[in-house]
């Protein structure tokens, strides 16, 4: 007799004998963060610091998706709950948050941890405990390992982004490409991928400049870019640091072409950039979250309106998309839910059509749901046109 059968028999015996007060709920006993009435999904991400705006918006997108499911009765009768802890984009805090949630039995699975170094700090723990994890908010190739059975990436890798878009810059005849990268593991990985791609195109960066994580040396970096006579800049930056860099570069060389990776400009920073965003190019890995052209975006906006959530944008859209995979995986896993069944059901998703944006895994690790990569340009209204 296995443990599940044993607990069920105890519960049945308690009901017969009128001693239900000491019987344990079999769902809660079998899996952390799971009961007959709810499933709790955990996330650690920046709700303060340089990526606070992105973290708040991303969380809002997940909540909008979960609210839509819960209004329809949940998944196999269970309500979806989200537990988020703020790590301020600090890896040590991410590690402490995830350890707290997992060791305390607070969550059934994980989703949407933000940052390259932050994910690096927790992936081994997640794998060791056999916890399904959907949608790391990073494109770091170094975190995509064939041995990972429980990690399900959604966005393409930064390496794939750079491999796709840098040759386009070269084909446009842009000369003297400089790289500005955030001085952390994320930025350094973008730098390495960009330099490698330039070499493959028989070019070399005219300079590689490390931007402080808080962007405090943005003025100095902008001056160094100008002194290097850069003809274009690839930015491996994100959050408020990107804002400080772009404003500094625009003040010194307004027409200098700037291209950021997909996380460079987060939607919450657009009001600060204002007119400086116009003409800024960025890699696009999800459909336009604002226009009504995308069926996926229309579903996202409908969910946010129904949940009475106002902060919509690219970060929230990514949260909503990640949540769709979590929801689909839980539906396929069935009512008799375990972490291993969720892992298997996620791995079995080959084609999840969100309208005009399709997600699916190839069946073997590393699991990556999308390879959609385009270049978009921000217009005068702060909307990105792919």
From TrEMBL:
**Which residues are in the Leucine-binding protein domain?**
39-353
**CDD domains on file:** PBP1_ABC_ligand_binding-like
Keyword vocabulary terms for this entry: Signal
Per the UniProt entry, the signal peptide is: 1-28
Q: Which SUPFAM superfamilies match?
A: Periplasmic binding protein-like I
**Which InterPro entries does the record cross-reference, listed alphabetically?**
Leu-bd (IPR028081), Peripla_BP_I (IPR028082)
User: Which family does this protein fall into?
Assistant: Belongs to the leucine-binding protein family.
**What is the protein's name according to its record?**
ABC transporter substrate-binding protein
Biological source species: Caldimonas brevitalea
């Amino acid at each position: 007799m296995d443990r599940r059968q044993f607990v069920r028999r105890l519960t049945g015996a308690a009901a017969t004998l009128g001693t239900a007060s000491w019987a344990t709920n079999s769902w809660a006993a079998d899996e952390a963060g799971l009961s007959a009435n709810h499933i709790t999904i955990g996330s650690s991400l920046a709700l303060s610091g340089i990526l606070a705006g992105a973290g708040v918006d991303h969380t809002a997108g997940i909540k909008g998706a979960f609210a839509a499911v819960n209004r329809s009765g949940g998944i196999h009768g269970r309500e979806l709950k989200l537990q988020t802890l703020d790590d301020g984009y600090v890896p040590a805090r991410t590690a402490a948050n995830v350890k707290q949630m997992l060791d305390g039995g607070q969550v059934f699975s994980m989703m949407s941890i933000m940052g390259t170094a932050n994910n690096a700090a927790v992936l081994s723990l997640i794998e060791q405990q056999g916890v399904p994890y959907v949608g790391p908010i990073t494109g770091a190739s170094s975190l995509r390992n064939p041995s990972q059975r429980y990690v399900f990436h959604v966005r393409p890798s930064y390496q794939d982004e750079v491999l796709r878009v840098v040759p386009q810059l070269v084909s446009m005849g842009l000369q003297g490409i400089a790289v500005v990268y955030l001085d952390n593991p994320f930025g350094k990985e973008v730098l390495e991928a960009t330099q490698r791609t330039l070499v493959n195109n028989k070019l070399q960066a005219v300079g590689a400049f490390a931007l402080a994580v808080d962007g405090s040396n943005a003025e100095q970096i902008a001056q160094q870019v100008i002194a290097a006579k850069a003809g274009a800049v690839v930015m491996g930056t994100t959050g408020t640091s990107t804002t400080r860099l772009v404003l500094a570069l625009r003040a010194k060389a307004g027409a200098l072409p700037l291209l950021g990776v997909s996380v460079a400009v987060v939607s919450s920073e657009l009001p600060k950039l204002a007119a400086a965003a116009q003409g800024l190019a960025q890699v696009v890995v999800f459909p336009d979250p604002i226009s009504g052209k995308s069926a996926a975006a229309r579903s996202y906006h409908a969910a946010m309106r129904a949940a009475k959530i106002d902060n919509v944008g690219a970060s929230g859209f990514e949260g909503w998309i990640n949540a769709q995979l979590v929801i689909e995986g839980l539906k396929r896993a069935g009512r008799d839910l375990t972490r291993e069944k969720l892992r298997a059901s996620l791995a079995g998703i080959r084609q999840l059509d969100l309208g005009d944006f399709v997600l699916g895994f190839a069946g073997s690790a590393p699991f990556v749901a999308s390879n959609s990569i385009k270049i978009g340009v921000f217009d005068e209204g702060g909307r990105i046109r792919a």
